[in-house]
Amino acid sequence: MYLTIKETAEYLSIPESTVESLIQRRKIRAIHDGAEYLIYKEQFNTHLKQMEKYKHLVEEILNEPILEDLDVKDED
Q1: Global pTM value
Q2: Could you count the other beta carbons within 10 Å of the beta carbon of residue 2?
Q3: Residue at 42 is within a domain
Q4: Which DSSP state fits 34?
């Protein structure tokens, strides 16, 4: 499925100008049909899956309880 620049910006939750910049810098693959750029939606699946995986990992780390260190001595 192909998306326009506007649809891609909405899908990725970023401004249209950012999508255009990424296309110009060849960070996003796109084809030009003479009138507008079309972006293949499936190229983002791996990235979005990785971001979800990292988000879950960070949440696990932040929710992990901090254990008391047995070697710490109160010297007061």
Answers
A1: 0.62
A2: 14
A3: yes
A4: S
Give exposure, 23-42, as e/b (b: 16+ Cβ within 10 Å).
beeeebebeeeeeebbbeee
Check if the beta carbon of residue 68 is closer than 8 Å to that of residue 74. Answer: no
pLDDT digits (tens, 9 = 90+) for 60-70: 999 988 877 76
- 23 vs 45 pLDDT, higher one: 23
| CATH classification of the domain holding 51 | 1.10.10
* Residue 73 located in a structural domain: no
Tally of domains within the chain: 1
